[in-house]
Amino acid sequence: MALLIDGYNLLHATGIFGAEPGSFQQSREALLNFLAVALEDSERKEATVVFDAAHVSSSLPQTVLHEAIVVRYARNYPDADTLIEELIEGHPARRSLLVVSSDHRVQRAARRGGARFIDSERWYAKLWQRRLHRRRLGMQPTPEKPVGKMNPEEIAYWVREFSVDDTAPGAGAESAPAAEGPQQVDNPFPPGYGEDLLTDD
Question: Tens digit of pLDDT for each residue in 134-192?
Fold first, then answer.
């Protein structure tokens, strides 16, 4: 099933969204790295994440690939919702499209187009539970999912939690394929992420 994800909406649902202007890029990278680890290979290839372009560097392309995930920045659009509406309308198989957003405007567009939709909070919880299920299969500890804003110490903790190798023996048939580089698996958050959230700069 194809995924169309409202990026900033999902960021708020995860609680890793930084309020400081300089943290927008780090927040986006953190979310994309999380998705690269949490989604199956086949899901990543059919996933599109849409972000507003207000806090995006003009040197960044309008469309990029992140671990096979298509990332679209709503440059030349009033907002991300407008681009998401266009993508829903132009999708060749809307009945097989799942739109991830808690935004009512986006959900109405999905309904009009015949696509399915789900609140970002619910989808994030389901994704987290699936990951915990894999850990149970591998006899790994099963922590509760993080909620609310995270300080650097909490972020470091969840970096360690997400660094569990799902391809270890005993992980079961649902295990995610190994990433090409060890850093992509071992650290889903960019180096130093979260440190700027406690500064006044």
Answer: 777 764 444 555 555 555 555 555 555 544 344 333 333 333 333 333 333 344 444 55
- Helices 7-14, 24-38: crossing angle, 10 deg rounding: 80
Each residue of 82-132: pLDDT tens digit?
A: 999 999 999 999 999 999 999 999 999 999 999 999 999 999 999 888 878
Token look-up 């995860």 returns 14
Structural tokens at position 33: 């790295």
Residue 32 CA from chain centroid, whole number:
5
Helix (H) or strand (E) holding 9: helix 7-14
**What is the Cα gyration radius of the chain?**
17
E-strand spans in the chain? 2-6, 47-51, 63-66, 69-73, 97-100, 116-118
